[in-house]
Design a protein that fits this description.
- The complex is a heterodimer.
- Chain A contains two helices and five strands.
- By secondary structure, chain A is α+β, with helices and mostly antiparallel strands.
- Chain A has a single domain, classed as Alpha-Beta Plaits.
- In chain A, strands 4-1-5 form a three-stranded antiparallel β-sheet, covered by helices on one side. A two-stranded antiparallel ribbon of chain A has the order 2-3.
- In chain A, a hairpin with a 5-residue loop joins strand 2 and strand 3.
- The longest helix of chain A has 10 residues.
- Chain A is globular, with a radius of gyration of 11 Å.
- In chain B, helix 1 packs parallel to helix 7.
- The radius of gyration of chain B is 21 Å and the shape is globular.
- Classes of the chains: A alpha+beta, B alpha/beta.
- The interface between A and B is medium-sized, with 18 and 20 residues.
């Protein structure tokens, strides 16, 4: 199952754990805020990225579904 | 006693993390600090860029969590009587407030250079000062002078350079004077690339109000006219005399303040005994959050030692700097690919700096743990 990463820019502090966990899926933008690099990724990868975030800024939705 | 109320002084990252953990365990918590709990205001790049502050919780969320918020400052601490002197944010006389158990989490305060007229400058070092500053930056193209090129000054200058004309003044010759020479070089290049006018070796002698804006007088670079002047130079102590009056207070490995029964410290102000680096205080976001939670666990009775390795990160425009470990413990530096590795006197990695290499964070941690 593929899912989409949703990153809340107001919660993200730019800690960098998500990029360290999976640099192909996430990168830091010019503000030091995380952003997804791929439209959809495998569920297990996405869950590891979510779990790595120390502030809970990353959630996921089924690929192609609008974020809540 | 396990359910005695806990008073947490300081409503930044550490204080709020501690209060939230205690409240989630059912302990009555009082959180004292001016305004709502706010996330890392000294590094509020996004607050400057977006015009809104990164609050950690609003009044409803605090109430829902069971945290009683006292909106004000602590002016005095009497450990013998177990009482605080609290001054409300909205005026009125200061009043005494007893406590049963106390967690001190006020952080360090950012200093301004002691020159005439410095009170006419702005700061972006806490929620209140940043809130006051933001309207002055609402219109683009302002002439902004930032005094102090440490991490906060450089981040502030880089953020504001997107929409304002920024001059950065620093007493030392280069920015980020306490960092590794490669970090200083990289930061200098980035600041120049962003169009920031950097004036190193600058001696500010005074600030004067002008008809429109301010005049920054210097002994080295003449007068500089500005619409907005932001001063963020160094740090100063926030601790009351009862806790030593300095920048930090010594704790044991469970973050209990030495010699003060029923008092804990966390965040910037806690000088704890790290198992490898000795007694250290780590004034950065990661330590604030982690030690806040750890102090709460300690209050709740856990006996685990706080042994987190220091880690900090900074974004100066497009330059990402990350550091794991403790730089003062390094006596020899070598470069391995895009990592700068500092070895201690036994040849073991004690600190790793990543310059624009966020994907290597776990590699750096593995080096440190080896």
């Amino acid at each position: 199952m593929n899912v989409e990463l949703i990153i809340d820019p107001d919660t993200c502090v730019g800690y960098g754990e998500c990029v360290a966990e999976d640099a192909e899926a996430v990168e830091l933008d010019g503000d030091g805020c995380a952003r997804a690099r791929q439209a959809a990724i495998d569920l297990a990868r996405a869950e590891r990225i979510c779990a790595a975030c120390p502030v809970g800024a990353i959630s996921l939705v089924a690929a192609g579904r609008p974020a809540a | 006693m396990p359910n005695d109320p806990v008073t947490v002084v300081g409503n930044g990252v550490a204080g709020y993390a501690c209060a939230a953990r205690l409240a989630s365990a059912g302990v009555p918590v009082e959180l004292i600090g001016p305004g709502l709990p706010c996330d890392r205001p000294p590094l509020s790049k996004r607050a400057l860029a977006r015009g809104r502050l990164p609050y950690l919780a609003d009044a409803l969320a605090l109430e829902a969590a069971g945290i009683v918020h006292v909106d004000g400052w602590v002016d005095g601490l009497d450990l013998h009587r177990r009482a605080l002197t609290v001054r409300g944010r909205n005026g009125g006389p200061a009043g005494g407030r007893p406590f049963a158990r106390l967690v001190w989490a006020t952080g360090v305060a950012i200093a301004r250079p002691p020159v005439p007229g410095i009170e006419a400058t702005d700061q972006n070092v806490d929620a209140a000062s940043t809130e006051a500053l933001l309207p002055r930056l609402a219109q683009p193209g302002r002439r902004v002078v930032v005094i102090g090129a440490g991490l906060i000054g450089c981040e502030t200058a880089a953020t504001l350079a997107r929409s304002h004309r920024v001059t950065l003044l620093e007493r030392a010759d280069g920015p980020l004077g306490r960092q590794h020479p490669d970090v200083i070089d990289a930061a200098g290049r980035v600041l120049a690339g962003l169009g920031i006018t950097f004036r190193g070796g600058c001696a500010v002698t005074g600030i004067e109000r002008a008809r429109a804006g301010r005049i920054v007088r210097t002994a080295t670079h003449g007068d500089i006219t500005a619409d907005v002047v932001i001063a963020v130079a160094g740090v100063r102590a926030t601790l009351p005399p009862a806790l030593g009056g300095g920048r930090d207070v010594e704790t044991d490995e469970r973050l209990r303040v030495l010699g003060a029964d029923g008092v804990w410290a966390c965040g910037d102000v806690a000088a704890f005994p790290h198992p490898r680096f000795g007694r250290i205080a780590v004034p950065h976001w990661d330590n604030a959050r982690a030690s806040g939670v750890h102090a709460a666990e300690s209050v709740l009775g856990a006996d685990a030692a706080y042994d987190r390795d220091p880690y900090w990160f900074s974004d100066i425009g497009p330059l990402r700097i990350q550091q794991v470990g403790f730089a003062p413990a390094a006596c020899e530096w070598v470069r391995r690919d895009d990592l700068h590795v500092g070895h201690d006197d036994r040849g073991r990695p004690a600190c790793v700096i990543l310059l624009g290499a966020p994907t290597r964070l776990n590699d750096a941690r593995r080096m440190l743990a080896a």
